[in-house]
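User: Structure please.
Assistant: Input sequence and predicted structure:
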Amino acid sequence: MFKHNIFLRIYAGLVILVLLVTLFGYLLVQIINYQRAQVYRESLTDGMAYIMSEGVARQPNMQQKLDWISDASDLLELPIYYVEAEKVDLTRAEKRRIEQRKAVVRWDAQTSVAYIVIGLRDDPDHFLYIKADNITERQMKALPVFILDYLVYYPGQEKQYLAKIQDYFSYPITIQDVQSLPLDSEQIGRLRLDHSIILYRDSATIRGTTISIVSPIPSSVSEVLVMGPVPLFNWMPFKLAAGITLLSMFVLSLGVYGLLVPMQRKLREVSYALNKMKSGNMSVRLAIDGKDEMALLASSYNAMSDHIQRLIEAQRELMRAVSHELRTPVARIRFALEMLVDEDDYEYRQQQMEQIDKDIEALNKLIDEIMTYAKLEQGTPSLDFERVNLRDVLEQVAIETEALKTGKQIELYQVPMDLEVEAERRYLHRVVQNLVGNAVRYCDEKIIISGGVDANKQAYICVEDDGPGIPLEDRKRVFEAFSRLDDSRTRASGGYGLGLSIVSRIAFWFGGKIEVDESPRLGGARFTMSWPAQRFKKKSRYKAEEGNKEQSTS
């Protein structure tokens, strides 16, 4: 079904494309957020890594360094190890971060545990190794202690040294007056009791929710240390969402363009062919690729071009043939009229009048043949199919032919009495009449008419004669309009070369075919027309389909 319908293929392609773009967008967000989350974790730990490295470096001996690390571990309630550097395998990027006195953070997504590696300023052979598996408010409130421990060595210069180490922190660290902060009385009371507090702020800006840690400074009554605001990690910030959306729309647009390009190319080919047709060039044909609507359109165009080209050729041939066929009877009539002018003999004048009457009758018959042929050739005739008794039609033609006293023997051969087929009776009668009339002109003595329905449910009528037959190389040409194999003999028999062409067109509009071969019983020509004995709709007006069903029998 999808193979035969280009629009279903496009719709299905769009659905698949949307699913693929959605999956692509999801994977891209996951990859980007993995990197963003890693950068976010490192940015939060870089400043504290510097402060802790400075804290260890200030201890005068190894024992005091180990004591400081133990106190820091108790304060943070996290295990902190003093490990040899050679036991920690670092990548090139991680070594570069250690050299820049930044932290190395390794995140285990399965256990949600962060492993933090901190380099030491005065001890390159050792690292601080921290396992952070659970970050609570208690640990957050402990962070200002390390900064205050660093500032205690610079009394009166705290703000200046905070400004120096600010580059290691991704969030601001300041000393502010407690009255300038939006704190309530309870929070101020907790600060006076030397307790740190955490402030959560929701914002409608891009920063979103932020956290600030406010800690009292032991040497000051009115000033406090403020760490933050620190923005919480946003898994879908506006810039990322907008970028992924625009990228997805771009990829989707490319996919839609790719789905429509084949149809656009075929439409351009059709447009080119139609323009050529409009200019009078009927030679362009479209390639038929597949079985979808575009292939049907190409097939219909090709059939239409063939039909129009054939109609033009038929019209030209018809005009040439008509002008040729009309000249002979018109010339005879003119000659007879000229003879009548100077003739006084009554009997002779009567003979000339009879000859003129025959020529006028011949003209009427020729015009009738031409009109019938043109009607069948140039358009789709309205065919009123009905159940027709085949034997009745064949008998009627046989009786009508015998009434002409041709002197030929006509035999109706093995046609069932009650055989009914679906056909247009008027045109079926015309087919049998033309075939029998053609046989009468060329047979020696005998004609056999037969009909029936074969094993393929095809109705057929067959007319045989004992005449000279038709050579194999001429059997297709006999169905061409105004075609004569023996011109002098045809004129003598009164034919115009349209009878078999009319039969061929009727066979086509019946959805069948007409063939000629050698009669196995009489030795002359055998004409056989076959068509479907039963149609999908009975006793209904049938419009024969024009175009891709047209055959070369025309």
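Confidence is low (pLDDT under 50) at residues 487-494, 537-554.
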